[in-house]
Design a protein that fits this description.
alpha/beta, globular
């Protein structure tokens, strides 16, 4: 296992979730290379706040620099994610489908695809895992508790690659959360928007119960 201080996270997307993941990661000792669609210079204030362990870059540079990556862009922009620099890497996908923002995506409306599955198709050489998609951004830095805490909040992941789910599980634990592994990406719809597990505070058993209650079309 790589020690946290030796690990660089490439973050593609510097909105609410991306900036919060960056804050917590830096606090834990990770190096962070963060990017957005508008250019590194627009991230000067955030990088100044994050300190010496963070720097701003382009999405391609962040993808290349990261030992693993967090993709947290509006779903409608997922095809803009650089493919080649992420080949062979684990990619944590925080995407949610907001049709009001993203436009209608029939494969999602019809229950034939998942948000993270779409990203996996776009990144065929990467190992995509769902993560941080069903927690309010502000809670990422405030709701975590130590390993073994009673009623510890749990978050879900899913991946077609066990090693990707394991990395998310380790990161969740470092961030202060238990993990429930849904299984393959094709089942990750259970934690998507408007389902029982979405953005509610739940411990591991409650999360399992909420995942089980989910129905495919909402």
């Amino acid at each position: 296992m790589v020690a946290a201080h030796m690990t660089t996270i490439g973050i593609i997307g510097a909105g609410h979730i991306g900036s919060q993941v960056a804050r917590k990661a830096v606090e834990l000792g990770y190096d962070v290379v963060i990017s957005n669609s508008r250019g590194p210079e627009t991230l000067a204030d955030l990088v100044a706040e994050l300190g010496a362990k963070a720097r701003a870059a382009t999405p391609a540079e962040a993808a290349a620099a990261g030992d693993f990556a967090v993709v947290t862009v509006p779903l409608k922009n997922y095809k803009d994610i650089p493919v080649e620099p992420l080949a062979g890497k684990i990619v944590i996908d925080t995407n949610n489908y907001y049709w009001e923002r993203d436009g209608r995506i029939p494969a999602l409306d019809n229950g034939e695809a998942t948000t993270s599955g779409l990203l996996q198709e776009h990144l065929p050489e990467s190992k995509v895992a769902k993560g941080f998609n069903h927690i309010m951004a502000s809670d990422i830095t405030t709701d975590g508790t130590p390993t073994g805490s009673e009623d510890r909040r749990a978050l879900a992941t899913a991946s077609d690659y066990p090693e990707a789910a394991e990395l998310v599980t380790r990161l969740y634990d470092e961030f202060g959360f238990d993990t429930v592994n849904i299984g393959l990406l094709e089942d990750s719809w259970r934690v998507e928007r408007d389902r029982p597990a979405y953005v509610v505070r739940q411990n591991a058993q409650e999360l399992k119960d909420n995942l089980a209650m989910a129905t495919r079309t909402v």
